[in-house]
Amino acid sequence: MDNLNSDIFARRWDALLAWLQDHGMHVGNALLVRPKKRPGSGNGLFTVGNVPHSTPLFTLPATAKINIKTLSSHYPVKTHHDLPLSATQLISLHLFLHRPSPGSESSDPLFGPYISILPKEFDSHPLTWVVRQNLGRCFLSSSERTLLGFLPPSVVSSLKNLEMKFYHDQRRVFQYIQEFQEIKQRSSIPLQNNDAAEASVARQYLWAWLNVNTRCLYDRIVTSKHDPDNISLCPVFDFANHTWRSSTMQPLPSDAEIWNSIAQGNGSDLTCVTCAVDVAGDQELFLTYGAHPNRTLFVEYGFVNEVEDADLVSGNYAGEVNLDDIVEDLFSRRGAVGVWMKDVLEQRGYWGDWTMHSAPQPAHPSYRLTTALRLYDTISEDTVEVPSDPDIALKPWYDTVLGRRETVSIENEEAWRCTLLSICNTVEKRAEASMKSITDTPSPRDPTEWYEWMLENVRVLWWEEKSVAIAVAVSVRDGIEF
Q1: For the domain that residue 137 is a member of, what is the CATH number?
Q2: With bands split at pLDDT 50, 70 and 90, how would you rate the model's confidence at 4?
Q3: Is a pLDDT exceeding 90 seen at residue 456?
Q4: Which sign does the torsion angle of CA 259, 260, 261, 266 carry?
Q5: What's the pTM value of the predicted model, to 2 decimals?
Q6: Tens digits of per-residue pLDDT, 7-20?
Q7: What is the bridge-based pairing of β-strands 56-60 and 249-251?
Q8: Domain, as residue range, for 239
């Protein structure tokens, strides 16, 4: 990654500002921010001087964003057909074709100065480790191999889902390239017929895809507000980092959001302002990506929230644990009865996504988990055959799901709460063992510069699981009703 204090970055930043000015952006005194190397690691967006609250920091013209509107007209389609790519696929294709060579600038005539200043690698992102592992052991460093081995099962599962999404987009993009061969002429690296199988090509597309996945902003540019094509890469804005605490900057609602009407042409400009507090000069500005658990932040973005014990105990921070692997194992050990109960939960939409939460207090299981455990303990563990009349056997549980009664029975409440305590104990002990393993395992022979930082991120994932499990167990023992 280029050092933000280097002459190379300064030249690229100046080129970006000149390009933005050509697009109509005010980049003189009206621009109250600048990128800067942040303490510890990474880059951030900092104030140039003292900035009062609710003050516009910059306005980014719609034409300077990379999105499905600004790119679509530059890519071929079949006659009378729409572009067969999603926004993620189209933006990642464009970045893939125009990634600059090491030490060089992007030759893209549309967004070259912006692409030139994007991150040069995503080595510390967990998806990078997975893709390298798939390419072959020779592509995976000892640091990456060690970290993959330490990940919690819930993180591994979420990472697998992200991996599937990545490969789906990669296949679609390369199908499009094969369909429209003329696109190959734009690429900064040679593309052969077996493009996706080439390690160098796969790594280049991974770089492009991760830029989209980690840096895009929700931007209402198509009719439906829930359409996944509502994303844009936004220069300057994308230097801002996330905080789970109070954010200090935010984008103003676009015209599309205010009027619920899509702007013609390239969409709406983006104006960012300070929040409800004044910000001193040379201070980093922070956004809030959303109320995501650390598991999601780690998998999607490659970092976790910095949280203290007091934050979780007080309820200021909402810790979360996903229990799918543990609960699935409970049902699988019940044999034919477990298979039947799984089918019941699937039919009712309650299979999977079982979580526990530390906030809002008191710490509690999710309703999905409560519902699944009530079913689990409706049928005695001694029962090895599916009831002859399932509807009668499950009527109290069905009535609970439908809101006709509060609980299945007093005995069932006691039983499923005991099962929940056992789950909490399993989570706590597993997390303790994993954290000890992280501490006791020697560092890799040649650790990467980010290895210790990422190792701490993984430790935090386990710490959160342990802390939430302890908090929920306390709620159960205290007789809290969920």
Answers
A1: 3.90.1410.10
A2: low
A3: yes
A4: positive
A5: 0.94
A6: 888 999 999 999 99
A7: unpaired
A8: 7-301
